[in-house]
Amino acid sequence: MARGDPEIAANRLEILNEVPLVELNPAVRSLAAQFLSRSNLPPKASDDAVHIAAATVHGMDYLLTWNCKHIANAQIQRELEEISFDFGYQLPVICTPYELLGD
């Protein structure tokens, strides 16, 4: 399975070097497990569930992604929004960078 161009990925990591990381604490892990068990996210999307849960638990306004199969997917987001609400969280706006920037 391809994970993208290694050189481009290294450039992205360098740009993000100064951005603080969010903790993958028990609340994040618990919400990710709920996402996997209560939505139509497949088990192979467990890393995606953690990304979404981390952004949700830590109150991010936006989660930018190029993953339109499991993350920036309107049908999945609807379910994740309900699950997040059930646990007292608000799902961030999940979109591609192009969608955030507009025209």
Give a quick rundown of the structure.
The protein has helices at 6-15, 26-38, 46-57, 74-86, 97-101; strands spanning 62-64, 93-95. By secondary structure, it is mostly helical.
Outline the structure in words.
The protein has 103 residues and is mostly helical. Strands 1-2 form a two-stranded parallel sheet. The chain has five helices and two strands. Helices cover 51% and strands 6% of the residues. Strand 1, helix 4 (74-86) and strand 2 (93-95) form a beta-alpha-beta unit. Helix 2 packs across helix 3 (46-57) and helix 2 (26-38) packs across helix 4. It has helices spanning 6-15, 26-38, 46-57, 74-86, 97-101; strands at 62-64, 93-95. It is globular.
What topology does this entry show?
Blueprint: H1 6-15, H2 26-38, H3 46-57, E1 62-64, H4 74-86, E2 93-95, H5 97-101
Parallel strand pairs: 1-2
**SS-derived structural category:** mainly alpha
Q: How much is the average pLDDT?
A: 91
Overall, the morphology is globular
Biggest sheet, in brief? Answer: 2 strands, parallel
Residue share in helix: 40-55%
Cross-sheet strand order for the largest sheet: 1-2
Strand-residue fraction?
5-15%
The stretches of 5 or more residues where confidence is low (pLDDT under 50) are: none
Number of strands: 2
Distance between the termini: 32 Å
